[in-house]
Every structure is written in C-alpha cells, then in structure tokens.
Amino acid sequence: MWPGIGRFLRWRWGRLTLQTVTLLVAAFVIYDGLTGPQRAADNLATVTVWLHYRGVLVLGLLLFGNLLCMSCPFTLPRTLARRIAGRGRRWPQALRNKWLAICVLIVYFFLYEWLDLWASPWWTAWIVVGYFSMAFLLEALFAESPFCKYICPLGTFNFVSSTISPTQITIIQPDVCRTCVGKECINGSAQVLGCGTELFAPQITSNLDCTLCLDCVRACPYENVALPYRSPVHEIAQPGSWPRRWDVSLLVWIFAFAGLSNAFGMVPPVFELQLWLAGVLNTTSEFLVLLLIFGFLNVLLPVVLALLVAWSSRAVVKRNEPLRVSLARFTPALVPVAFAVWLAHYGFHFASGALSIVPVTQNFLLDHGVTLLGEPDWMLAAIVPMGWLRPLEIVITLIGFGVSLYVVGEIGRKIRPKPFPLIGQLPWVLILLLIAAVGIILFNLPMEMRGTVFFN
Ligand code: SF4
Ligand code: SF4
Known about the structure:
Elements: H1 5-10, H2 14-35, H3 44-63, H4 67-70, H5 75-85, H6 99-114, H7 121-141, H8 146-151, H9 153-161, E1 170-171, H10 174-179, H11 184-187, H12 215-219, E2 225-226, H13 246-264, H14 268-281, H15 286-317, H16 323-330, H17 334-353, H18 357-367, H19 386-414, H20 422-443
Antiparallel strand pairs: 1-2
Helix pairs in contact: 2-3, 2-7, 3-7, 3-17, 3-18, 5-7, 6-9, 6-13, 6-15, 13-15, 13-17, 13-20, 14-15, 15-16, 15-20, 17-19, 17-20, 19-20
Bound molecules: iron/sulfur cluster (2 copies).
Residues 171, 176-177, 180, 183-185, 201-202, 220, 222, 224-225 line the site of one iron/sulfur cluster.
C-alpha cells in the first residue's frame, strides 16, 4: 500500500474517520432535505447527493477505486447491528447472486425518473433514511453483509464500475497464505472483522463484490494483503476473472444501457416520446408511460441485444458451447464504454455545478442564523468553462470506446487453445459502436440542468 495514504487506510480507525465525515454529510442531507427549502438547487440534500456525490463517485472509481463504498456511512449502523445481534443466519442460497441487485437497480432507475428524485429534497432525504434502515435491519438478521453484496443499488453500480479501477486487493506472497492456519482475512479474529462480503484474498481475481473496506488488510496477521495500483484493464481483459453467470453478465448489459437511458431521460426527445406514447395509449398516467419507456430501455433492449450478440458471435464461429459462456466471454469489454457514458454524464453535471455547494451552504447557514460565510453568491457554479463540457463528454466516450475495443481484442487473443476468430468478435465491436454512437448523439442534445441555478 502507498506511503502516507496507506498508513492512514491501514490504521484501525482510518475507515471510521472517513465514514464519520460522510455520516455528518448524510445527517445534513436528511435534516435539510426534510426541513429546508424544497427547491433542488437551494437544498443541501439534492445538491450534495445528485451533483457532488455522483461526480465524486465516478471520479473516485476512475482514479482510485471503490472510494464511496470504502467511506460509506450506511455500514456504520450495520456494524452496530452486527455487534448487537451477533452473526446472523446465512443469506438464503436462492438469493446468493446478482438477480435481486439487478431488480433493485432497475426499480431505483425507474423511481429516479418517475418521482424526479433529483428534484426532490424530501425524497432524497427519505432515500438516505431508507438506506440506513435497510443496512441495519439486514445486518442484524443475516451474516455476510447481504445489503452491500446482494441489494444496494449504489454498491452494485460501484462493483461494476470498479472492475476498471486502477487498484485491487492482492496478496504479497502466495506461500505465506498457503501455510496460514487462521485465514483471518476472511474469518476475522477476536479483535478484527474478516471480509464482510466473504472474499478470500488469495483467490481474488476481480473487484466485483469488494467494498474496499480493507478489513482483510487489517485482519491479516502477516501483513500479506496489499492494495497496489494495476492496469485498469487488468481484470476485464483477462478471461476467467469473472464467473460465467447469467446474472453477472446481464448486470453489466443493464448497467451499460441504463447509462444511456439515464442521459436520454434529460434531453428533449424523451418528452416528445412521452407525449406520443401517452397519445397512442390514450392515457394520462405518467407512471405507465415511463414504465414502458424505461422498462424497454433498461430491461428488454439490453437483454434481447445481449442474447443476440452472444448468439451471433457463437454462430459465426460455429462453437458448441452454452450461450451463457458465449455471453460471459466478451461482456467485460462493455465496461469501459459503459462507464465512460456514466462518467461523461455525471462529470457534466459535476463540472457545471460543483461550486454551487458554496452558496447552498451559505444559504443553509444563514437560514440557521450563522453569518460566518456571508451572503450566498449564486453566480458560483461551474468549475470549467461551459464550452468545454460537450467536447469533454465526447472525448471521454471515445476513449471508453477505444479501451473497450482493445479489451475485445485482448480477450479474443487470450482465448485458449487458439485465439477467438476476428469474425466472432464483430458482433461485439458493433454493440460497442452502438453504445458509443448513441452516447455521443445524446451528449450533443441540449441537456436539462439538474440541481444547478444559472444566472445570465
Ligand atoms: S491473506 Fe493473510 S490471513 Fe489471508 S490467507 Fe493469506 S496470510 Fe492468511
Ligand atoms: S476483499 Fe473483502 S475485506 Fe478486503 S477490502 Fe474487499 S471487501 Fe473489504
């Protein structure tokens, strides 16, 4: 682990210190969300969660790793629950996969559009309360941190994104692990917890399911666990890093298409589509119209395209293998371009409104009689010239596309006993092209500003 930062993170109270900071932020979010002005751009809840949290999240994942899970405040009541209730029962076998997480993620994306969560301080505050409650309840009832591993939509987003992060938990000397009796990195000891999501450090090949809590680092009595930098494509370009499971593969496809649909939800064509669909169905139900649009974009389209791409790739090379295996082989290559779309979108909002936290905080303090920071300056918003944003979004998407293409080639080259034929890689190249092209088209449309006030 790195000097300075490494010592802090390894320190017994390092994570707790980070979590205390985010816990305080969460407390302000809940308080201002429930009692403050119910206008998105003026409220700490909406500005902090939908502008800053998401911007910091994607930048953290890109530059470091799963920082937000590492400093997640929701695990504090979870730890308390574990101490009160002891180790609970095992999470049901039927739910030990990503299906539930996929469902929760889809519901979350739908609620985001239907309830305009980004515009509602009140809803934002209740989401945070709900997170704390669920984490506490599930940890009190079950072992194995089921909330993080099997349910949390933020964790699910972070797990997929962190597969291209530049860090990964790694052991230093395999021989030390071979002779280790206690396996404290996973089992824990009387003083320290083992891995909450039950990953065994010597066998880790992926960041999927790693919350970067560093409990394994602190638990290993031989100081044999490290968090070194790695190539961002180290994991996804390596066949066999991920389990070949339907749920894992489809999660990535839904992650990719939800990135596009999330951006689509903010540009003019979505409103025209809503009107058209409402007219065709002769309905005034926004719920029904949005359910059809986002059900199609986030579920039906990715699932059908995933099956089609995997099937056509298998068919052209005449491989006799389960479709599940064909799908899993190149699915990791979707992550760079999919993450690039999320990064471009969230980065756009963050870059165009990051400084708005200053006047919003000033306003919050003034409302509570604190004049320390003076009058709010509502002109503060963007951290880069607005003219840069669109080119930056396009460049980010193109870089993601380029990295995805490279990963397809690398996976194909490493397939044994002989490389996967180029013709079989073509359907995957086409789907990457489609994702990047749609992303660039969306980023070229006027995008609704969320959580930011602009004065001309
Ligand atoms: S990482 Fe540490 S605790 Fe885990 S098996 Fe290796 S030596 Fe043992
Ligand atoms: S492997 Fe487990 S204990 Fe180690 S950082 Fe990841 S989640 Fe935490």
